[in-house]
Inverse folding.
């Protein structure tokens, strides 16, 4: 079983030695997305909710490039520099996912790339 890189112009280009996603068999592993605007490669302006929405828009673009959708995601890991934003993540995710919701972990971290305050990665099953 080989692996295939997935790339979408609708999500930020990789800022390091990684692919936006890798497909192997029926699984697609989506790399972590921070709230970068794919056009400018800058953190989006606005409040935490706007940044969280950008993260899930980025994941959505990569999922669609892989031939799937957010509804095909089986596992999401969310990283937050402030766990007080956990409730907002729940609200945002309710706008992007339907039941049955994917399995999820939410982890508090000291810092994220480019000074972001939220990042999410996911596993897609096709």
């Amino acid at each position: 079983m080989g692996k295939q890189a997935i790339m979408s112009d609708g999500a930020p280009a990789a800022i390091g030695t990684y692919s936006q996603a890798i497909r192997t068999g029926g699984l697609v592993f989506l790399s972590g997305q921070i709230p970068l605007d794919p056009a400018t490669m800058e953190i989006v302006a606005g409040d935490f909710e706007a940044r969280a929405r950008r993260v899930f828009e980025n994941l959505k673009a990569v999922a669609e490039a892989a031939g799937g959708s957010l509804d095909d995601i089986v596992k999401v890991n969310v990283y937050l520099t402030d766990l007080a934003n956990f409730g907002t993540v729940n609200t945002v995710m309710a706008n992007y996912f339907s039941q049955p919701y994917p399995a999820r972990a939410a982890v508090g971290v000291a810092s994220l790339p480019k000074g972001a305050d939220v990042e999410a990665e996911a596993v897609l099953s096709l």
